[in-house]
Design a protein that fits this description.
Helices cover 34% and strands 26% of the residues. The chain has 381 residues and is α/β, with parallel strands linked by helices.
């Protein structure tokens, strides 16, 4: 058993490192004070929130977070909360550091403690787990009702394809290239009113079906873990294949002032998936609005024989600079035998995937029908 540190342990150098260290210390002191005060007050309870884990039949990575939450008496009426208030609640959490936590996967049990941000990160050697989703139990000895059950995806050793997808402007329409729209979507649009990129769910389901339903899907996002539940519900609501969400820590720490660099985070996360699942070839899907093309290109340079295709959605508004950047990377990767396509909608990706044997012809028709019913191009806002 190995207990993992926070998402990055790379030391910060010079004055920047000193500033990050100082801010992290201030945050720790403040957090301890808040936790101490609230644990003494009635109406607050200790909970453990599981996140979807993943791994192989013999080793799994599990993740959860220990929080303090306000309890509402069973007989008290629920008060309406604005969309803005609900969005803020996702970020205004009270994390509990150093709390003992019990973890069980299959017949393996262990005891560990939450880190400085309340995370429980454990890599656990297990017996021969069956492929598919398996339960993982977290228990807080200090809380009378502190038991929660999460899930861990055990990748089928017979799988031959894996899919990595970005989330914002790749799965869910966020508008990160337009700050005002991104803020409005995040804070003012109700969770169940957010929209998916048309044809995306049909494309992903088709790619999974092309590997006899065994292909795992990993959603790799620079978004905060606080939004894990929101995004997980979105994926289910819109018919995307369910898979682990791999997200980031926000706030000062060893990964930086605010969060780990997006390219470095995605590159290292995907490289770890490639190393762990050596039998898989991969399709990588992202968008041009952030740094997905650069991150995916870095992965492809290191293991070109493992990457079947890279699809980059052309995020609005049109940007000649972004287009040129992606096409320059595509030209470079073509020399390595890795196709990178800048796509207008899901149909273009589906047609290419079918041409290289990853998608059945009838699946292309399903993707096309979904895009046409929503109004093409799929990336239009």
């Amino acid at each position: 058993m190995r207990v993992l540190p926070p998402s990055s342990q790379l030391p910060q150098a010079g004055l920047r490192g000193a500033l990050v260290h100082a801010l992290a210390r201030v945050e720790d002191v403040f957090q301890r004070g808040v936790v101490t005060a609230l644990r003494r007050r009635p109406g607050w309870r200790l909970v453990v929130v599981p996140y979807a884990g993943h791994g192989t039949r013999t080793q799994v990575h599990v993740l959860a977070r220990v929080l303090l939450r306000r309890s509402r008496p069973a007989d008290s009426p629920a008060r309406p909360v604005s969309t803005f208030g609900t969005a803020l609640r996702h970020y205004l959490t009270v994390e509990v550091p150093g709390e003992p936590v019990g973890v069980q996967v299959g017949d393996r049990q262990l005891s560990t403690t939450a880190d400085r941000e309340g995370y429980v990160r454990v890599t656990l050697d297990v017996g021969e787990l069956d492929p598919g989703w398996q339960p993982v139990t977290f228990e807080l000895p200090a809380a009378p009702d502190g038991r929660a059950t999460g899930q861990v995806l055990v990748v089928d050793p017979a799988a031959r394809l894996g899919l990595v997808s970005d989330v914002d402007d790749t799965v869910i329409r966020t508008g990160l290239t337009r700050l005002v729209e991104a803020v409005r979507t995040t804070l003012l649009v109700p969770e169940d009113a957010r929209t998916a990129l048309s044809g995306g769910a049909e494309l992903y389901r088709g790619l999974v079906a092309g590997d006899s339903g065994r292909a795992p899907v990993f959603y790799v996002s620079t978004g905060a873990w606080n939004l894990h539940g929101v995004l997980e519900r979105f994926i289910v609501r819109h018919g995307f294949p369910v898979g682990p969400l791999l997200m980031t820590d926000w706030g000062p720490g060893q990964s930086g002032l605010f969060r780990q660099n997006g390219i470095a985070y995605k590159t290292s996360t995907i490289a770890a998936l490639l190393a762990e699942h050596a039998q898989l070839s991969w399709v990588l899907v992202g968008d041009s609005g952030q740094d997905d093309a650069e991150a995916y290109a870095a992965v492809a340079r290191s293991a070109p024989q493992r990457i079947r295709a890279i699809y980059i959605r052309d995020a609005p508004p049109p940007s000649p600079a972004r287009t040129q950047r992606v096409r320059r990377l595509a030209d470079e990767l073509a020399g390595l035998g890795v196709p990178m396509l800048l796509i207008e909608d899901s149909v273009a990706a589906a047609e290419h995937a079918a041409a290289i044997g990853l998608l059945a012809g009838e699946r292309v028709a399903e993707v096309r029908a979904a895009v046409e019913s929503a109004g093409s191009p799929a990336a239009r806002s």
